[in-house]
Amino acid sequence: MPRVSRSRRSRRSKLGRFSPRELGVLYSKHFADACQERRFLSTLGFFTAFATARGVTHAIRANKGPFRNIDPGGHHIHHMTFGIVGMIVTGTLWINDIGNGANPAHRPASRVTSALFGAGVALTLDEFALWLNLQDDYWTKQGRESIDAVALYGSLLLMALYSRDLLRELARV
Question: Would the pLDDT of 22 be above 80?
Answer without folding.
Answer: yes
